[in-house]
Amino acid sequence: MHELTGDERDYLARLLKKRHDDLLHELHHAVTRAYKEGLREEIDLTERLQHQIGGVLAGAGV
């Protein structure tokens, strides 16, 4: 597996944070149970990925 540079990790952290925020907003407005479930699954995925890149989120100012 390719090791990410600090800049790459920071960029990825910002993308994940933005997507996570967007998903939470969308979940708040979702109507159907099936759609909400899909959003929750994607939220879980973004949270797992954020965790995998470690404390980069805190250091990235996001």
Shape: elongated
Helicity level: over 70%
How many structural domains does the protein architecture include? Answer: 1
Report the mean per-residue pLDDT as an integer.
Answer: 89
**Beta-strand proportion:** under 5%
The secondary-structure element order is HHH
Structural class: mainly alpha
Number of helices: 3
Structure commentary:
The chain has helices at 6-29, 33-52, 56-59. It has 62 residues and is mostly helical. It has one domain (6-54). α1 runs antiparallel to α2. The longest helix is centred in the first third of the chain and has 24 residues, at 6-29.
Keywords:
mainly alpha; disordered C terminus
TL;DR of this structure?
By secondary structure, this protein is mainly α. The chain has one domain (6-54). The chain has helices at residues 6-29, 33-52, 56-59.
Draw up the topology in text:
Blueprint: H1 6-29, H2 33-52, H3 56-59
